Amino acid sequence: MIVVIIKENFCLAPFNTFGIEVLAYNLSIITNISNLEQLHKAGKLKGRVLVLSKGSNILFTKNFDGLVLLNQMWGKEIIKETAQYIYLKVNAGEFWPSLVEYAVENGWGGLENMTDIPGKVGAAPIQNIGAYGAEIKDVMESLEAFNLDSGEVETFSNKDCKFSYRTSIFKTEFKHKYFITSVTFKLSKQHSLNISYKPLFEAFRDKNIDDITIADVSSEVAKIRASKLPNPDNLKNAGSFFKNPVVSKDKFNEIKLSYPDIPNYPLVNGDYKVPAAWLIEQCGWKGKRQGNIGVHEKQALVIVKYGKASGNEIKQLADSIKNSISKKFNIELEMEVNIL
Q1: CATH number of the domain where residue 330 is located
Q2: Cα dihedral 62/64/65/66 (nearest 10)
Q3: Judgement on whether residues 159 and 131 belong to the same structural domain of the protein
Q4: What letter would DSSP give residue 244?
Q5: Which of 112, 166, 182, 218 is catalytic?
Q6: Which of 100, 131, 185, 217 is 20 to 30 A from 120 in CA distance terms?
Q7: Tens digits of per-residue pLDDT, 278-314?
Q8: Catalytic site includes residue 48
Q9: Are 21 and 93 members of one domain?
């Protein structure tokens, strides 16, 4: 018998952090690979399919007229251990913050800078999530994914995923073609701390690097995030709505003539990454509210929903922000949130 499929309209408000009240025409809860195999054998994966985890990086603008696969695959295990590393295989339905906490408690380094990023493990490689100088590509060994077309489980190495800034092959040429079932992380026993990000560097300025633990880093990251980013459980949002744009050296120097103090991150190829939040602030959007939606007062990268509002209203606000940045700086912001 096929696993539970809700064929009647199913409200997805609890399964996206914006709390948008849209309907899924069909929904199936996935707890193991055999669930996916049964659905494939029954021909249920041939139409429109959406893999949904916690919905922390998605904006629904309409009902989903297909099958939603709700990822609830839990569990983790050590599959290999050396003198220097732990290889931890984690099922895709595990909550990312809980995984980071688990690793830190066991003294396994590599995830601490990504403390409290909302979402589930399966979504992390798709987005190549990152924070405070670290990205998942730095610690991911491999992943397993169910091919929705062939019905086979395939293994992808780190290189296979074609990671780059906030994206991967699963967000480009393989978008909506795979269900990631597990991710294997290579975590360190002998740590090389990453505290180069300015707030972290300043927090530990007076400490000897040898006295700083991964627990210290994780705790500090949690404090920084809490001071800047709203908790989606309290104020509906999907985290950073826009990517930080990369501009050429000439373009950067052009902006710097008018804005000498523009924050920036030089890249090895000579380009510059410019904080999208700074650009948004310069256009007057920080803290601005339009009805039940607005830009967060502490972090201009975050669009928030204060009350009942539609996904289209949020998208219209995002488009207005993009247009103003384009007009003022001739820079095209790219949305980090997936729009459906």
Answers
A1: 3.90.78.10
A2: 170
A3: yes
A4: P
A5: 166
A6: 217
A7: 999 999 999 999 999 999 999 999 999 999 999 999 9
A8: no
A9: no
